[in-house]
Amino acid sequence: MTILRKSLAVLGATALVAGLAACSTPTSGPGTGAGAESASTEPIRFGVALPQTGNNAQYGEYFTQGFELALKQLNDEGGINGRAVELQYEDTQADPAQAPAVAQKFVDDPTILASLGDFGTPASAAASPIYQAGGLVQFAFSASASTVTDPGDFVFATWVSQQFEAPRLADFAATKGSKQAVFFHDTDWGADTHGFFADRSEEIGQGTVYETAYDPKSTDFRPLLLTAAAANPEVIVLISYAADGALITSQARELGIDVPIVGISSNYNQQFIELAGPAAEGFETLSYFTPSNPDPSVQQFVSDFSAEYDVATPSDYAIRAYDALKIVAWAAAQDPSRDGIRTALATGTDIPTILYGPITFSENRRVTDAEQFALVVKDGEFVLAE
Amino acid sequence: MDILLAGIISGSTYALIALGVSLIYGVSNIVNFAHGATFAIGAMLGWFVASVLGFPLWAVIIVVIAATALLGWIIHFIAIKPLGSAPPIAALLTTFAVGIILDNTSQRIFGAETRRFPALLEQGNLELFGFRFGTLGLVILGVSLACFVALALFITRTKYGRAIRATAQDSEAAQQMGIPVARIQAASFVIASALGGIAGVLVGMYYSNVSPTIGFMAGVQGFAAATLGGLGSLAGAVVGGLILGIAEAFGVSIWGDSARQLITFGVLIGVLWIRPGGILGRVPAVGSEPMTGTFFGAGRPLTLKPWQYAVLACAGILLVFPASDYILRAGSLVWIYALFALSLTIVSGFAGQIVLGQAGALAIGAYTSALLMTKAEWPFVPSFLAAGLVAAVISVILVAPTWRLRGHYVSMATLGTGAFIAALALNLPWLTNGARGIFAIPRPEIFGFEIASAPAMYLFTFAILVVFMLLVGRLGKSHLGRTWAAVREDEVAAASSGIHPAAYKSLAFGIGSAIAGFAGALYASQLTYIEPAQFGINLSVLAVTIVVLGGMRAPMGVMVGALVLVAVPEIFRPLYEWRYFFYGALLLALVIFRPQGLWARVEKVPTWLHAPLQRTRALVGRNSE
Amino acid sequence: MTAIPLLAVHGLHKSFGGLHVVDDVELSIAEGEVVSIIGPNGSGKTTTLNLISGVLRADAGSVRLAGTELRHFKPHQIAAQGLTRTFQNGRVIGNLTVRDNVLVGLEAVQRVGRPLPALRGIPGIRWIPLLAETVLAIVGTPALRRQNVLDNAAVDAQIARFGERLAPRTENFSFTLSYANRRRTEIARALISQPRLLVLDEPTAGMNQTETAEVMHQLLDLKAGGQTMLLVEHKLDLVMTVSDRVIVLDNGRIIAQGTPEQVRNDPRVIEAYLGKRHAPAPDAQPAVAQPAHSQPTGATA
Question: Which SUPFAM superfamilies does this chain map to (chain A) (predicted)?
């Protein structure tokens, strides 16, 4: 009886191991991607690592909007050199612990020619060494840290380094008032951005009467705002995302703090207006994107996007995802192989994007800088500020 | 003054959540991890009914109360009732699983986006004695106090309330007196969940933003408030909530928002150090003598013959050949988590202390090794050893005063300590690089070989796991295993036999933390990037889940548990955004059907539990004539 | 009686929330003496034992074992001083075998494999002996193995005390044991460290008459072997047979003490047990001796 049961336990455990092994893709073995280009009718496939569940799932939803629109357009136009485009989504919850396995999964699959994602620096950074070792491009379109492309020449990033954007925000804030209160994310991105921001503020002699880091998941900002208000700032600066930026803005207005509020570009999101409600009126931000940009490709994108989704304006996240797929597809059109995409990205010039206009990757595979527009919320919409 | 007021109002929302936690704890001796999820459902449903359907406030509240009350009944029916006499830890896991299911269901139904909760009330600002009152704040304060008063009256003045109190005091005696204990427990879930739902609506109105994932943190703050005030005490829940709210408001306004968790959990740990039963709770001077023996988990681990273990080990090694790099990469994470959970085989399985803060030790290990390798440029091996040592020393010092505590207080105090350590990592940027995290942590290197490839990493982590499993297994079979068992099952009897319980609990915890620290070093090298947010309470709960589900009395349990719990989310990938829903469902099912763990022989509970129970009952009955 | 009693208790006080449960209890036990505490339910007998054995902290008073003040000692330190005990409801370690249960009792005195006992009392420093113990447990020295053989023999000797009652179940898990066998296991656990003072809290509770008689004989054997004992017991037959002296508690106070014969005839005892109306007039002492003896024996258990 017990011997039988023990043997069953051993058998069961062995079966589990064997089962795990069987789960592996039939075409196992490290894929270099070199073999995939020969079959020219095969679809071109890209992997997408993103949060579909968990705390950051909403950003995964924004990404998916952008990806699906770009994918539809690509395939409607006949794919890449006649080959259909497919995306393989894998959920990582933007969790650095889950990201390496997903990266390895993409690396293992020779039909995948490049990977897009993940959300934020942590999950992207945890996956980078695997992409680098596997020779698969990691297109980290949502990672902002200054070190994000350090792991090697297969890692690309489109987030303009905060060293350009943050000082501009400092200059912009100085035009609104000479004493500022600064709220910034207590994340790698927030700390980086704030660093550059504070340096510039000091340089131009802008007074900072209050500054604080905060957890983006916090909900009660009243104690912070009350302390800030006691220091009598003339302008409040938000280095925030749209959801928490909106929360701070609405709680500030509710407490009767009526100084101008300016925010960094990631606040450019219709969600900001929805969440802050009437309090959003007058909020200003510097954005790379403006729906009123006369560029025909931008206008086309805006109308396509609103035709596809029931949203007034596309979010920053959706635009970044849309651009990411378009850029990688552009590179795949040059040479549909893993190495080819890397080379095309590294050497290509003036690659078209919606967010930044034409871009060229710098020596360290990043977008150096791009023009920004001052936007203001007026009647529930982001419009160009005078 | 305004800050005090903001603290009181946010404190009263904590109090409202804590009331539910405390009520359920008082009646059923269960820490309900699904409570936060119920709160979040209340908030999201409130948003839906108010914003999408456009109902007025009173209708919103009625709908939410009805729905969350029903939810409470369902939680009790599917996650508590089937457990019968399984140990309380099983209820912790089933409610945690229900929490996962609820959060994911809510995300699928309402969408993952953060939503604006409509105001529903005229916003007005009054000014009185230098206080600025928002009407909303007043309403929240009023509703919280009203809920407390109503609940207190219900419990002290009504017949049903008397039954609840009787059940809270001694559920077995209450059962014998003809009180329908199961129904009373269900009622406590219904009431508590409805309170959670109301809290969801109020918090939604107050903060104006809601999202499906706000529950977990709110739940933890509710636990912290309830524990602070004294678990099971309703007045304690209110006092605890207010203290926490006020301490946070002032602390945050002085040190900034990053210090919030530091304050929350610092206050929790500090209070438990001074008052082990919470502010209004009492620790009974002498625990009632266990009538039936506190037979913590009936499961006895399976034992195999040496050759059978050898076969398993070979299977583990030979997996390298058929498996893809993806399987191996996922596999090494499985083994790292297994090693992490092995720390609890000693602390929880052997010594019986349910520790909910092992992510703290993991974090210390990961940071120690990462900092030594990147900043001091130490090689891997000494960094690895230092990781275990530092993790053990810091954890043991922080947790030392906890060993005076009993049962759930140990769990809550260690939960606080673990979260406190993660908060420290965030608040010491000069040392840990704060929120920026540590990049480019080198892979392990041994004797000049860099272990970077997927098969190498897999074999390396597997080998380390097996070595530690052998060591832990040996400890379990030594006289120390016996000593720990005595402490685990009857601390008083163990002490009266000459065993110093605190010393041996501390020893178990120290060894466990060292193992968690070693796991942390491997974790850092596997991920190559760490930041404080990775070491949250979820990770601590995962370790407990692994060890309980696998079977906590034998090292093999962690292998089985980690294979199921870490591999299942990978295997469920074809389910896309539903995978965590099914993960929760599977966890729930496994715990209900195998509360004693997978790596255990099933023993029929009734035969040994019921006979002695009745006999002692009869005896006590006679004695007290 | 020797000059220094083995156990000397002075002015022991304990109150729970204003209720004096133990009120100024004084007692002393000489080497080799067997003393019983009796009294109605709620009279503070078990609390007194808990105070002496360190399970509860006394509010005031002193407890000396062979001259060493125990009042600020913790239970495990008291056990190491040579005072071990059993509990009212048989506190065995359910998930250990009977053998392991009894071996647990050796922890109070075992030194092999548990180095540097002197450092154990010092917070922080105690990690040195603890870690040394862990290392030895993993390594498993020859000395440790030899000691294990001796320890197991000692366990068998203790279990043999109960004849065939417990011996066949030595390797069974103790949660499978009958109530009586749990008590036997507990007594063996308390005895294996060869304590100077054995404290027994109702060792025959829940036993039938045959089993009670067996325990009585075993206690008499122990007494014959010179074992000092402090006993709380309801069954007066057993108390009167085994004890050298009996102390009677009521409402936390000692109301009478003396030889079994003296106590049996003490009117205050009879009053405490049976209530006032049974109490004889002070001048009519001998008349009620018989009912006082038989009634409690039959009615309480």
Answer: Periplasmic binding protein-like I
Number of domains composing chain C? 2
Residue C167 and residue C200 share a domain = no
SS3 of residue B78 by DSSP:
helix
What's the whole-number mean pLDDT along residues C6-11? 92
**Do B528 and A126 make contact, defined as CB atoms within 8 angstroms?**
yes
Looking at per-residue pLDDT, the higher value among B61 and C297 belongs to B61
- The CATH number that applies at residue C73 is 3.40.50.300
Interface test with chain B among A162, A219, A254, A309, by most B beta carbons within 10 Å = A219
All domains of chain A, ordered by start, with CATH?
41-160+310-347 (3.40.50.2300), 162-287 (3.40.50.2300)
Edge-first strand order for the sheet with C228-232 is: C83-85, C197-201, C228-232, C34-38, C245-250, C253-258
C128 & C218 share domain: no
The verdict on a CB contact (< 8 Å) between C92 and B290 is no
Q: CB of B520 within 8 A of CB of B391? A: yes
Q: Which pLDDT tens digit goes with each residue over A170-203?
A: 999 999 989 999 999 988 888 889 999 999 999 9
Residues B214, A136: Cα–Cα separation, whole Å: 36
Domain that holds residue C29: 1-82+196-301
Distance from CA of C260 to the nearest CA of B (A): 23
Half-sphere exposure of C286 (CA within 13 A, CB side): 0
Looking at residue B621, its pLDDT comes to: 38
pTM for the whole structure: 0.88
The C-alpha atoms of residue B538 and residue B435 are separated, in whole angstroms, by 18
Q: What is the dihedral of CA A171, A172, A178, A181, to 10 degrees?
A: -100
Which CATH code of 3.30.300, 2.40.128, 1.10.3470, 2.60.40 fits the domain covering B304-572? Answer: 1.10.3470
pLDDT tens string C244-299: 999 999 888 999 899 998 888 888 887 777 665 554 544 444 433 333 333 333 33
Which residue in B250, B326, B601 has the most chain A C-beta atoms within 10 A of its own C-beta, making it the best mutation to test that interface? B326
* Contact with chain A for residue B580, Cβ under 8 A: yes
pLDDT in tens, A99-117: 999 999 999 999 999 999 8
Interface list for B 118-137 with A (CB within 8 A):
123, 125, 132, 134
- The pLDDT of residue A24: 42
CB B268: neighbour CB atoms within 10 A?
A: 26
Is the ipTM of this structure higher than 0.90? no
Q: Residue B140: what pLDDT? A: 83
Q: Indicate whether C179 belongs to any domain.
A: yes
| Record: contact B489-C93, CB cut-off 8 A | yes
In terms of domains, do C211 and C232 share one?
Answer: yes
Contact at CB, C91 and B483, closer than 8 angstroms = no
pLDDT given for residue B366 in this prediction: 96
Neighbouring chains to C with at least 3 Cβ pairs closer than 8 Å: B
| B435/A275 CB distance under 8 A | no
- Which chain B positions have a beta carbon within 8 Å of A146's beta carbon? none
Question: Which residue in C has a C-alpha nearest to residue B284's C-alpha?
Answer: C16
Distances in Å between the Cα of B56 and the Cα atoms of A381, B145, B299 are 27, 23, 53
Q: pLDDT tens-digit profile of B435-463? A: 888 988 999 988 888 888 899 999 999 99
Q: Are residues C70 and C200 in the same domain?
A: yes
Q: Is residue A140 a contact partner of residue A157, using CB atoms and an 8 Å limit? A: yes
> Got the DSSP string for B147-182?
HHHHHHHHHHHSHHHHHHHHHHH-HHHHHHTT--HH
Considering CB atoms only, which of A133, A147, A218 is closest to B257?
A218
Amino acid at C142: P
Q: Is the peptide bond before A118 cis (omega within 30 degrees of 0)?
A: yes
Which residue in A352, A362, A378 sits closest to A283, CA to CA? A378
* Segment A302-322 mean pLDDT: 87
